[in-house]
Design goal:
Length: 166
């Protein structure tokens, strides 16, 4: 669905949304990285890109840091996604190597189109408000780094495949 840079951007933006108070509260790149369990250098680089795109404001020096440039409800996940991902305009079919749109649709065609539509809808309709509300109104607290669940639950991440050892 998206790569590591987009995931890091959403993690940083979501943290800034969680502490949103009109833009007065600022967090350093190091604070965001530590609170999300991410590499500091990568978060700093991502925040620089987000700042250039106008999604965050950064202030240097003591008392500085980053804050969202607009209210969380005004920033969609699409805005972060577009900074780090490119649309795949390939017409190659993953089923049999043909060209999509030529001949009969492959066995995966309708499912892939539905998945693409669902992802577009998620990116367009989901704003950072969901994170602000979860923490500030619903009382949800981010899980501390390294904490593991007592009982496993299904995750949205793809399972890691284990190659058999030779």
């Amino acid at each position: 669905m998206y790569g590591k840079q987009t995931e890091t951007a959403i993690a940083a933006l979501s943290r800034l949304a969680e502490v949103w108070d009109g833009g007065r509260m600022r967090l350093s790149a190091g604070d965001i990285a530590d609170q999300r369990g991410l590499p500091r250098a990568m978060v700093a680089k991502i925040l620089s890109t987000l700042s250039q795109a106008g999604l965050v404001h950064g202030s240097p020096g003591p008392g500085g840091g980053y804050a969202l440039s607009r209210e969380p409800r005004e920033i969609s996940l699409r805005e972060a996604h577009e900074l780090f991902e490119r649309d795949d305009d390939s017409s190659n079919c993953p089923f049999g190597g043909g060209v999509c749109g030529v001949g009969e649709p492959c066995a995966m065609h309708d499912r892939l189109r539905a998945m693409q539509a669902a992802v577009r809808q998620l990116l367009d309709e989901t704003t950072l408000e969901i994170f602000r509300k979860a923490v500030q109104e619903d009382g949800l607290q981010p899980v501390a780094r390294g904490v593991r669940p007592d009982t496993p639950r299904e995750t949205y991440r793809a399972p890691h495949s284990r190659r058999p050892k030779a």
